[in-house]
Write a structure and sequence with these properties.
Blueprint: E1 22-26, E2 52-53, E3 58-59, H1 61-64, H2 70-74, E4 80-84, H3 86-89, H4 98-110, E5 132-134, E6 157-159, E7 182-184, E8 188-190, H5 200-213, E9 217-220, H6 221-224, E10 234-237, E11 253-257, H7 262-272, E12 277-283, H8 288-299, E13 304-308, H9 324-337, E14 345-349, H10 355-364, E15 368-371, H11 373-378, H12 402-427, E16 442-444, H13 445-453
Parallel strand pairs: 8-15, 9-10, 10-11, 11-12, 12-13, 13-14, 14-15
Antiparallel strand pairs: 1-4, 2-3, 5-16, 6-7
Helix pairs in contact: 4-12, 5-12, 10-12
Length: about 450
């Protein structure tokens, strides 16, 4: 059993005032000057820490308020009111909603699981990962109480092929040569950013965070070669025309794009560097041709299939395409039917925005996930995509202090890791590797609706 994994989180201040969901309108006129004002009883210290920011021309109370409404309800003259912040409503997009961005900001700043005084007031079902419910039947057992329990819960995963079977001689000695693998302590790797005001400072922060966490970061070869001292934590993304022209001997793992020359490159790398872990980066699409390519790569000894959805977790280039969870389930089922599932690692990325998306991806059939935009959010990104349009970044991510950026990313992953432990403890699962494809521990809304209502709306067959 691997040793217990711990992430050292440290609270670290934001560079810019946080855009909060709600604002507090405090009408001074009519105040009774109570001897014990409700403002002094705020357990979050909102009014004590309140200040005015000249950069956003607003009170910073939104940053501290947890929406418990104690002050609103407690004021005898009802002089305190809550309003929705219009700037907050413009953040992000349909996946990276203002709520998700705010939650990730808080986790990056504190390293703690976020708590809202008002609790969760949203929907209990939705699209994508929100259409999944996990089995938490073991939550009543105190020994499996996540980060506080007495049972050891491992989040370790391995990257590399597995043999279909092991062979032994008559004396029980292992004859099979075990394939090389890489073990990381958490089922999360850092994927390439789809956008961002990137600079050497940003890359340095990301690489340093990967080193501290013991995980891997995927980056283009041109960037990867700048960090030779940290090659063990870097997965170099190579174009096929670079194969045989650049030195990859110091990397433990490389990734190839999926094109017509990939099979040739894969065979070459495996022949030249037998211990090198090779991943193929494929668009996550539901098609027979895509799955046929997966089978071809498997027969050529690929170690990892990197299934990549678009930024919002859907099939790339397809309007109303399938969500990543359905794409994972499809390829997982196909490999199971072929009897090949244990031989290849499945890395899924695209649209992994919250800690719960990690564990839900694994339950659908992935071995581990890649995270991208959430890392930018840890650096205070507002997901405005100004950088993609050549406009200036509102929070100047390219100018960050790398040490500050490293701690912010470590804090975010630390908070996500604690949530993984909480969910695994509640599910009674002590090994992250056991989560892969464990669909008996999850319910899908579409399956429940089909089982419940399909027969009611089917024409009778007389």
């Amino acid at each position: 059993m691997p040793k217990k994994y711990h992430i050292d989180v440290q609270p670290i201040a934001n560079r810019f005032p946080v855009i909060g969901r709600s604002g507090i309108v405090d009408w001074g006129e009519g105040c009774l000057k109570c001897a014990k004002c409700v403002k002094t009883e705020c357990i979050y210290g909102v009014y004590k820490n309140r200040s005015f920011s000249t950069s956003i021309m607003a009170d910073t109370i939104d940053e501290f308020c947890k929406s418990c409404f104690r002050c609103v309800q407690g004021c005898p003259k009802r002089l305190i009111h809550k309003t929705i912040n219009p700037e907050w409503e413009t953040l992000g997009d349909e996946l990276y909603t203002p709520e998700i961005i705010s939650i990730n900001w808080e986790q990056a700043a504190t390293g703690k699981i976020p708590v809202s005084g008002a609790g969760y007031g949203g929907k209990f079902s939705g699209a994508g990962f929100d259409s999944m419910w996990t089995d938490m039947s073991e939550i009543v057992r105190p020994t499996r109480d996540g980060i506080h329990g007495r049972e050891y819960i491992s989040t370790v995963v391995d990257l590399g092929r597995r043999l279909p079977r092991l062979e032994f001689d008559n004396n029980g000695k292992l004859l099979s040569k075990l394939p090389h693998s890489i073990r990381i302590p958490i089922p999360i790797v850092f994927d390439i950013f789809p956008f961002g005001d990137l600079s050497p400072r940003v890359w340095s922060a990301v690489v340093a965070a990967a080193v501290r966490l013991g995980t891997l970061v995927i980056m283009p070869y041109e960037n990867a070669k700048r960090y030779p001292d940290f090659a063990a934590q870097i997965v170099a993304l190579l174009s096929n025309d670079l194969i045989g022209k650049v030195d990859v001997s110091h990397f433990r793992m490389v990734e190839l794009p999926d094109d017509r020359n990939t099979l040739e490159s894969l065979v070459f790398l495996k022949r030249q560097f037998p211990e090198l872990i090779v991943s193929v980066r494929m668009e996550a699409k539901s098609s027979p041709d895509n799955f046929r390519r997966v089978l071809e790569y498997n027969s050529s000894q690929v170690d990892v299939i990197h299934y990549v959805a678009n930024e919002n977790g859907h099939e790339p280039g397809i309007q109303n395409g399938l969500h990543l969870k359905d794409l994972i389930r499809e390829i997982n089922s196909g490999l199971l039917k072929e009897g090949l599932r244990d031989q290849v690692n499945l890395l899924a990325s695209g649209g992994i925005a919250m800690a719960e998306h990690v564990i839900k991806s694994l339950l659908c059939g992935a071995n581990l996930v890649g995270v991208d935009i959430s890392l930018l959010i840890a650096l205070e990104c507002r997901v405005c995509r100004n950088c993609r349009d050549g406009l200036p970044c509102p929070v100047s991510i390219s100018k960050i202090n790398p040490k500050w950026g490293t701690q912010r990313i470590v804090n975010l992953v630390g908070a996500w890791h604690n949530q993984l432990l909480e969910m695994m403890g509640a599910m009674g699962i002590r090994e992250a590797r056991r989560l892969r494809g464990e669909q008996g521990r999850v319910m899908f809304r579409e399956d429940l609706e089909n089982d419940t209502f399909a027969q009611l709306f089917t024409e009778p067959n007389f």
